[in-house]
Amino acid sequence: MPPRTGSSCVIHLYSAADFARTIRRSSTFNEIAGMDGETLLVVNRQTESELDLFAPVDIITLKFMELRDELTRRSRVPIIVVVLPPHLDNRRTRGSLCSAAIAAGIAIYEIQDRAVMAVRLYEVLREGMGFTVVVEVEAGVLEVTLLSLCGGVYYGRAANVVSGRDFAGCPLVQHLIEKLRRRFGFDVSADADSCRRLRAACERAKTRLCSGRVDPVVIEVDSLLEGVDLCETISRSALVEMNLRHIERAIGECLAQGGISQDAVDDVVLAGASGHLHHVARAVRRFFTEEKPLRFTIDPAVVVERGTRDIVKQHSRRFIDSFGYLIFKN
Asked: If you compute the radius of gyration of the chain from its CA atoms, what whole number of angstroms results?
């Protein structure tokens, strides 16, 4: 039986393997731990055999320098717009970015939110017109953001992020932990080694389901904890439904954080490379009982970049100068 692409992608929505593949595609750097515990990135220079070690902020500085050189060829002052994921838009991140920009000789005109850029072209946020929910699914990360507009300023009322690289981010793992807790009365999440082995077994099961050649699959772990063996069967359809329910819970948690009911939401926007999947749209519609407008006429994979380009063009016309941009993914 050939693999079904759509459902296979939904299987890997919260997969550590999906997150790792994305990192390998987007980054050419290997990570090591520095003397003080700070993460260092290993850069192999093609012209020399020796290796260079950079802190992440140094890599950002180098990227800013590339943008500076590109912008100075067509404008007087290198000015850029930076776009951050909602959960990274904080004082510490902004301070690091400003330090890197100063070191590179580039000016940051403004720092925007990915969710705000996703809704920009739809023009769904209007003064005093309620709230918009942005659901972004990409790179093994689900991020739900609640936005409102007040005094011409966009406000992120709440954000809920679930990452495939985090232990708690996999619904299948959480399902098995809860099942073992009910059946045997112990908590696997309290034991690091058992967690690692359970997570690895779940990743293997998801990979086999994605191949389309085996359905259902058996998840087996010998002596998982206190001499108990794990042997559970999971089907493709059950796992897909499990992940879709997880999306619905994430939306509910985001609204609860913002103190907003479903009725107060006026629009829903899909973003991210996996936002085009009809399974994702179905889960969102199911949560809002199909009463809210669901915006995904613009390709969710590029809606953030297109919104960013629009605001950059606006600034360039206003100041008669060329602006650049740098978008950080989840």
From this structure: 22
Token duo for residue 183 = 């059946």
Check if the beta carbon of residue 14 is closer than 8 Å to that of residue 142. yes
**Can you tell me which residue has the tokens 């929505």?**
13
Give me the residue label for tokens 């904890």. 225
The domains of the chain, with CATH numbers, are: 12-165+245-327 (3.30.420.40), 168-240 (3.90.640.10)
pTM of structure: 0.76
One-letter-per-residue 3-state SS of 239-305: HHHHHHHHHHHHHHHHHHHHCCCHHHEEEEEEECCCCCCHHHHHHHHHHCCCCCCEECCCCCCCHHH
**The residue type at 300:** P
Sign (positive or negative) of CA dihedral 85, 249, 166, 142: negative
Dist CA 136 CA 144 (whole Å): 6
Buried b (16+ CB within 10 A) or exposed e, 238-267: ebbebbbebbeebbeebbeebebeeeebbb
Residue 301 · residue 273 · CB < 8 Å? yes
User: CB within 8 A of 87, min separation 6: which ones?
Assistant: 143, 159, 161, 330
Take residue 238 and report the two structure tokens written for it.
């059950």
pLDDT (tens digit per residue) in 149-199: 775 566 666 666 765 555 456 788 889 999 988 988 888 888 888 888 888
Residue 160 is encoded by which pair of tokens? 């809920």
Between 70 and 242, residue with greater pLDDT:
242
User: What digits encode the pLDDT tens for the residues 210-232?
Assistant: 777 788 999 999 988 878 888 99
d(CA 49, CA 90): 38
